[in-house]
């Protein structure tokens, strides 16, 4: 069997932080800078450009899993 790499493989932050940021952006239509501030309040220092990259990369997978439910 061939192991597939996780969607979040190779990122500096854990999958829970990335998925939370992507979920906030698509589910609640928050701006990237708002998400940056929310994560900062929780002790996660991340740039809004990084969040944009996460949304570009993981957004389609997130949307697919949301519609499947």
Describe this structure in words.
Helix 1 (15-27) crosses helix 2 (32-41), helix 1 (15-27) packs across helix 3 and helix 2 (32-41) crosses helix 3. The protein is globular. The termini are far apart. With 69 residues, the chain is mainly α. It has helices spanning 15-27, 32-41, 48-68. The mean pLDDT is 87. It has one domain (15-68).
- By DSSP (H or I, 4+ residues per run), the number of helices equals 3
What profile does the largest beta sheet have? none
The figure for the number of domains is 1
* DSSP helix fraction: 55-70%
Q: Please, what is the average pLDDT? A: 87
Strand content: under 5%
Coarse shape: globular
H/E series: HHH
SS class? mainly alpha
> Could you tell me the radius of gyration in angstroms?
12 Å
List how many beta strands DSSP finds.
Answer: 0
The N- to C-terminal Cα distance equals: 27 Å
What are the segments in which pLDDT stays under 50 over at least 5 consecutive residues?
none
